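$ run holo --ligand "5'-deoxyadenosine" --emit tokens
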Amino acid sequence: MNLDKDFKPGAGKSYFVLNYGCQMNESDAEHYAGQLEDLGYAKADDFHNADVIVVNTCCVRESAEKRILGKIGELKRVKENHPGQVICVAGCMAQKDGEKLIKKHPQIDLLIGTAHVNSFKEILADFIAAKGGRVYDDMAIPDSEFEGNRVRQSGFSAWIPIMYGCNNFCTYCIVPYVRGRERSRSIENIVEEVEQAVANGYKEFTLLGQNVNSYGKDFGEKGMFAKLLRRVNEVPGVERIRYMTSHPRDMGEDVIRAVAECEHVCENFHIPFQAGSSRILKLMNRGYTREQYLDLVAMIRRYVPDAAITTDIIVGFPCETEEDFEDTLSLVKEVGFDAAYTFIYSKRSGTPAAKMEGQVPLDVKKARLNRLMEVQNVNSLARNREMVGKTYEVLAEGPSANNPNVWSGRTRTNKLVLWPTEGREFKSGQKVNVKIETAQTWLVKGQAE
Ligand code: 5AD
Ligand code: SF4
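-- output --
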């Protein structure tokens, strides 16, 4: 359907987006909200009473899926109390299990595949024009996408998708199956979105992709991600640039130099290593060894000595022995990460690792996770303690939820900082210099100068 600008089936009606998963989903959720507002819907305070509910799903681990299935189940009762409510299930679970979901949960009206975020408006309008019926979108992943209207959640920090999909096929990961192959947005398109956001008062930009270091490879060119960082760095008004996620195999010296040399690119490297044993890394199809990862960390430290380095780690991948796990512990100690996101391996059917022999029992995985978190917590605290006595540029976010007299914000290295307002006024997106006085595992506290 070709939509007329004045077609407003949502006038006087409301919507709510229930979002789960990664930053790419947060970004997509903003596009769902933008298109709903284009159609005249207004944001509801609560999903129960909304006329349209979008559940934007994640399937990266079973725990996420279970939580979301619980919510979809709950919506059956919610809808019984609101005849005519439209329930849309979008995102990675819709892409993976759409047919199954729609059979099992009759309350679902629409399924939106991961590559159809920007067609949502037309799909919903078609559904409304058909006045019901279980219309749902086809799940094919088209080659290219554009970026339509969005309602940004933050007033100063903007998600900027630079590419979609993933070509890596790590053996544990479902993402390539639900997000398709890598497709990059053009530099012009990206820069235009950044410029528009600057004009609307945005200061911080997070460039998003499942593997940002591969940006532009599909154009047949190398070194494009470093070029993109340098180009965005030149956009007047941009104050901070972040990006995620990086793949250690594809993270080159050119990108590290761009971070070192570009004024606005933040000194924070999120480089998931996943496992410390080269044997497990091979089974994961990660494309690097423990030694190569450590060389990469050394290069980062050489070019950007003050960088914060963070990572993702999986414990209990099939065949992981106690010795392999100890390699993970020793790598964590050796690098001294600023923070780590730690996960228990979750079997994702359809991925090669799900069929591997030697699945690790859950109690062993849980025990390993606890040991790993203990080691990393020591690192996090030690790294945060190094900040005490120094002053950092903090981008203010807002008052803390339980105390309006305490504000929070982030350093360029992405550390969470709290400070008392002492009666002073602060604005979200304002730069504040904070002298750090105390450190905890997850945050630091100080005084604004
Ligand atoms: N089990 C556990 N963790 C996983 N991740 C991805 N797939 C799985 C899985 N099957 C983790 C990886 C990735 C992060 C986003 O989620 O560590 O970097
Ligand atoms: Fe979850 Fe991965 Fe989909 Fe993000 S891309 S929502 S992490 S499955």
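-- notes --
The two ends are 56 Å apart (CA to CA).
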